[in-house]
């Protein structure tokens, strides 16, 4: 792995733990075992977001990357890349007879039928705000939760949660990725009084990172311990008990679409996490029967050299790693393109960012 001079010592330690949940490249694996990820999103107005998200998943290393989108968006997204499997399964007001009277569970049926084939979902990129679409996706969220399928919620996927927080309340297999505006909307919907990032930054006195972490922790607690990745100058990841700060340096351009690289990367990391807990390969670690419940127990797992990590710890690590990879992609792309940097420039950097920050795990066969 390349030397990384801009990453703190504590982050390098965390990356060594992330490497534990990355499946090694072995001849025994068959197609699909190292990740089947689906992005649910894409409508007539927004076709780029689901593409960037799905391509980040593929570029990071999942085996199969799907896009489940609205009918009008499918030909466009298919035209972007033949590497993606695109399914025009999302209904909208334009594709149902009576948008005011629909059977949402029935309309969600074709998508729900695919869930058994998937390891992780990314819900929201380019989803739009069509009323029929949002009702159908809410049904998909309910079904995915009932099957304990991990998912990431972003953009208009977060709007669904704002309208009905019970969809994710207490669900420990999902990650919400709000920006500053979305974070504020969620807090307001839940009746949680937290300082905004602007208020925190203008407060002057005190540690702004600590205040942002407190706000993220409060919102997570209001949602029953759901993991929240709050995007900002430094990303904050919290499950209401334990918080981690992502301090990897990013670029200075805030172009649209960078969050899609984040969600796609998270999708693949969640799929790899599932493979880790399914013991798809021998990690050389001793089984750990106890689920980490406290900040101290999570830290003990991170400090351990040879004990298998529990799902609580690996979910925090996956969220932190997705944030770090995206920030590194942004840094690398900005170093090359400067203020002309676009979302597609981050896509091109995903694999290089992975190698630089995490690197291939022991046992990987990267050369024939």
Question: How widely separated are the two ends?
Answer: 19 Å
Spatial order of the strands in the main sheet?
A: 3-2-1-4-5-6-7-8-9
CATH classification, class level:
Alpha Beta
Number of strands: 9
Classify the beta-strand content into a percent band: 5-15%
User: Helicity range of the residues?
Assistant: 40-55%
CATH architectural arrangement: 3-Layer(aba) Sandwich
Number of helices: 15
* Mean pLDDT over the full residue set: 92
CATH fold call: UDP-N-acetylmuramoyl-L-alanine:D-glutamate ligase
Give me the Rg, rounded: 20 Å
Q: How many domains, as an integer?
A: 1
Q: The biggest beta sheet, please? A: 9 strands, mixed
Which term fits the overall shape? globular
- The CATH superfamily bears the name Ribokinase
Structural class: alpha/beta
Q: Which blocks of ≥5 consecutive residues have pLDDT under 50?
A: none
Order of helices and strands: HEHEHEHHEHEHEHHHEEEHHHHH
């Amino acid at each position: 792995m390349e030397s990384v001079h801009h990453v703190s010592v504590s982050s390098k330690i965390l990356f060594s733990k992330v490497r534990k949940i990355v499946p090694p490249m072995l001849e025994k694996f068959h197609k699909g075992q190292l990740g089947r990820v689906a992005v649910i999103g894409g409508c007539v107005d927004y076709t780029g977001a689901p593409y960037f998200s799905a391509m980040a998943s593929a570029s990071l290393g999942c085996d199969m990357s799907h896009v489940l989108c609205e009918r009008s968006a499918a030909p466009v997204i298919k035209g972007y890349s033949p590497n993606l499997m695109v399914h025009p399964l999302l209904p909208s007001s334009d594709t149902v007879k009576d948008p005011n009277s629909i059977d949402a569970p029935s309309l969600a049926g074709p998508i729900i039928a695919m869930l058994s084939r998937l390891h992780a979902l990314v819900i929201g990129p380019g989803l739009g705000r069509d009323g029929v679409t949002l009702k159908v996706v809410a049904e998909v969220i309910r079904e995915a939760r009932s099957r304990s399928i991990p998912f990431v919620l972003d953009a208009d996927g977060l709007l669904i949660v704002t309208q009905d927080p019970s969809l994710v309340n207490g669900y420990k297999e999902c990650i919400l990725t709000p920006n500053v505006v979305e974070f504020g909307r969620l807090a307001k919907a839940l009746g949680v009084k937290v300082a905004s990032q602007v208020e925190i930054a203008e407060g002057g006195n005190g540690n702004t990172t600590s205040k942002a972490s407190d706000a993220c922790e409060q919102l997570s607690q209001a949602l029953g311990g759901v993991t929240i990745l709050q995007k900002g100058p430094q990303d904050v990841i919290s499950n209401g008990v334990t918080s981690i700060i992502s301090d990897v340096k990013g670029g200075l351009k805030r172009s649209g679409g960078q969050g899609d690289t984040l969600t796609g990367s998270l999708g693949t990391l969640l799929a790899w996490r599932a493979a880790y807990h399914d013991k798809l390969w021998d990690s050389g670690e001793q089984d750990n029967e106890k689920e980490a419940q406290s900040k101290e127990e999570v830290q003990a797992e991170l400090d351990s050299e040879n004990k298998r990590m529990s799902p609580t710890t690996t979910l925090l690590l996956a969220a932190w790693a997705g944030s770090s990879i995206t920030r590194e992609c942004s840094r690398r792309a900005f170093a090359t393109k400067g203020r002309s940097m676009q979302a597609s420039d981050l896509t091109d950097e995903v694999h290089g960012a992975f190698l630089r920050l995490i690197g291939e795990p022991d046992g990987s066969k990267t050369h024939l």
